[in-house]
Amino acid sequence: MSNHNQKLTTSWGAPVGDNQNSVTAGSRGPTLIQDVHLLEKLAHFNRERIPERVVHAKGAGAHGYFEVTNDLSKYTKADFLSEVGKRTPMFIRFSTVAGELGSADTVRDPRGFSVKFYTEEGNYDLVGNNTPVFFIRDAIKFPDFIHTQKRDPQTHLKNPTAVWDFWSLSPESLHQVTTLMSDRGIPATFRHMHGFGSHTFKWVNAEGEGVWVKYHFKTEQGVKNLDVNLAAKLAGENPDYHTQDLFNAIENGDFPAWKLCVQIMPLEDADTYRFDPFDVTKVWSQKDYPLIEVGRMVLNRNPENYFAEVEQATFSPGTLVPGIDVSPDKMLQGRLFAYHDAHRYRVGANHQMLPINRAKNEVNNYQRDGAMRFDNNGGGSVYYEPNSFGGPKETPENQQHSLPVTGVTGSVAYDHNDHYTQPGDLYRLLTEEERTRLVANIVDAMKPVEKEEIKLRQISHFYKADPEYGTRIAEGLGLKVPSQEVLS
């Protein structure tokens, strides 16, 4: 018996606003890559006939809940944020970025901070890091960047020359490099670090009004970091130190918690703010856009089976729910495709059906077949849309919020290219002891670089951020700060 009131949903359970028309820039297009429903349909279809993560391979996870503590429904119609006291079950995966599945937890690396909220309107994934910025700001550079973090194809060893060559030729990386090389580059545990959505997203309220938003998870355990020598010792003695710590804390009833806050920017401010607010190598000043509390995340249950829950968990910033939308952030736009596609390759076309990934509400769509389809595959119900047989239908009220776009097609960079002010500000915020450790960490990391030209080019970036910063690193490497011609 068909249910004529069924809503058509994505594979993650969110309602579909329009299943007849792609999201385009105006009536003639071109089609926008942010149409995650289109990408999901096409990519799933490609795999209807029928390995370790490339990045973030080593990780640990836990279950918990998110509880709303502040009513922000004037900014978003997202159901799980709709009322104070509302609790939503969630799952989190922490990870390192560059190492393989058997690598050490205590290396200097960003930490992945990926949260899956099992809301009543489908799953919502916030796929972030423990840093508010990233190394690059356009997804087209991502495969090249990650190649530099992986193993040299000839020696099969990590390659500091490649790392610093890429960074020195990509000055937008300086803000994240400064963060990574600071004390926060090696957290004491997963519990003692903040988490960030990093990208700019859009919230939309019930009236259809939007704001730009950034997410900040503030650890209630306090920020603690590891001394480099202790971290190196632990990497040898207990390479699973962070995994063990998280499991034991929860097992012993010491449930870690984070306060979720957001920064909110009116849509029109994006055109006049002193940095491009969609550039993921930049932060918004909290003086301009102060943190507003949203709720609290508590981790209170360990996985029963690591493979089923942690290894097979799949996250994507394109796993969205009504009331939460994307921004023109070029890095985010690429991730909307790349993450879902990585999971279709790694776990399979039906990864959203696995218990750890499956939405808590009913999922209704016309995706069929594919490897490892383990439900009734839609049974004998109608398998295409539009149809005359009462199959699930789109709900126009759930269309993506519109975003005006203008311009001529082309490979165009961001308008704002100040890569030095914010890293310089970060350097000047550090205490003298923190600066000394930062400089020592960078000098140690750059010593193995084979070409002096790469070292000098990178020093010039540090110098442009802050003359003292560049000078101290040059001295540590036994080099002179490049001449003014190189610096200009």
Throw out a few tags for this protein:
alpha+beta; Catalase HpII,  Chain A, domain 1; 488 residues; 2 domains; ten-stranded antiparallel sheet; Hemocyanin, N-terminal domain; single chain; 15% strand
Shape: globular
Cα separation of the termini? 73 Å
Number of helices: 13
| Main sheet record | 10 strands, antiparallel
Strand content: 15-25%
What is the number of beta strands? Answer: 10
CATH topology of the largest domain: Catalase HpII,  Chain A, domain 1
Question: What is the CATH architecture descriptor of the largest domain?
Answer: Beta Barrel
- The whole-number mean of residue pLDDT values reads 94
Give the H and E element order. HEEEEHHHEEEHHEEHEHHHHHH
Description of the molecule:
With 488 residues, the chain is α+β, with helices and mostly antiparallel strands. It has two domains: 36-135 and 187-363, Catalase HpII,  Chain A, domain 1, CATH 2.40.180; 138-169 and 420-482, Hemocyanin, N-terminal domain (Up-down Bundle), CATH 1.20.1370. The protein contains 13 helices and ten strands. It has helices at 36-46, 142-149, 160-168, 174-181, 228-237, 241-251, 306-311, 330-346, 421-429, 432-446, 452-465, 467-476, 484-487; strands at residues 59-68, 87-96, 111-119, 122-129, 195-196, 201-204, 210-219, 257-266, 292-301, 324-325. Strands 1, 2, 3, 4, 5, 6, 7, 8, 9 and 10 form a ten-stranded antiparallel sheet that branches. Helix 11 (452-465) runs antiparallel to helix 12. The longest helix is centred in the C-terminal third of the chain and has 17 residues, at 330-346. It is globular. It starts with 35 loop residues before the first helix and ends with a helix. The relative contact order is 0.18.
